[in-house]
Amino acid sequence: LYPTLYKLNIYTGAKSKIVSSEGMLVCSDVSQNGNKILVTMAPNYQPDIYQIDINTKTKKRLTHFGGIDVGAKYVDNESSFVFVSNRLGYANIFKKPINSDSISQVVYHGKNNNSVDSYGNKIAYSSRENSNIFGINSFNIYLSDLDSGRVRAITTIGNNQFPRFSDNGSVVQYIKRVNGASYIGYSNLVTHTSLIFPLGVKKIQAIDW
Fold first, then answer.
1. Which one, of 149, 153, 89, 96, lies nearest residue 126 by Cα?
2. If you write DSSP's letter for every residue of 86-138 in order, what string do you get?
């Protein structure tokens, strides 16, 4: 039995198979028209980024690296994508055109940048600030404009990871961990207000809108 990705109609409950693969299989982004998706697959025990056409079920391998490439998100009007890779010996954020082999680094600070999301040509990513992965104030969320290169911090204290943009790009949601418990962080990029919502559960692994 292999991991299998399905498309589910949330109104009717109908589902259709998209792809199966040995190893890991994770969908990280969907094109605006819903026809293409970016996935991480590891059919040969090494995770790489693929683009799959939902209608034809054809797939295109986009990265060929002997390490880890995961978490791809569309940018540049879906002609490129950003993703997390350990090409530098630690997790960092890179950018690659869909139809080119050129790869560029887009984040130049932090000791571990292990998650990223995109809205247009803006990205939000988590960055480890100190040398102790389990230490206090270990991860913060940053906002970066890929066109201008401007970067600003969204969070300044705590363990904050897995940023996700709202549909209109005005809000970034993320997971904050405090003393082993999980909270949902909310940062409005327009009003510059932030809120933290306790969940009443011990720990969650991922969120989305």
1. 153
2. -TTSS-EEEEEETT----EE---S-S---EEEEETTEEEEEEE-SS-TTSTT-
pLDDT tens-digit series, residues 49-65: 999 999 999 999 999 99
d(CA 182, CA 198): 7
CB 66 within 8 A of CB 110: no
Q: Answer yes or no: are the C-beta atoms of 30 and 10 closer than 8 Å.
A: no
Nearest Cα to Cα of residue 206 among 178, 184, 187: 184
- Residue keyed to tokens 């059919």: 43
Beta bridge partners of 74: 81
Who's near 44: CB < 8 A, 6+ residues apart? Answer: 22, 23
Q: What is the C-alpha to C-alpha distance for residues 85 and 58, in angstroms, rounded to an integer?
A: 24
Q: Encode pLDDT of 129-183 as tens digits.
A: 876 555 555 899 999 999 998 999 999 888 899 999 999 999 999 999 887 788 9
Which residues are 191's β-sheet partners?
A: none
List the Cα angle 131/104/132 in 5-degree steps. Answer: 5
Query: Any idea which residue has 């961990």 for tokens?
Result: 177
Q: Are 123 and 136 in contact (CB under 8 A)?
A: no
At 153, the amino acid letter reads A
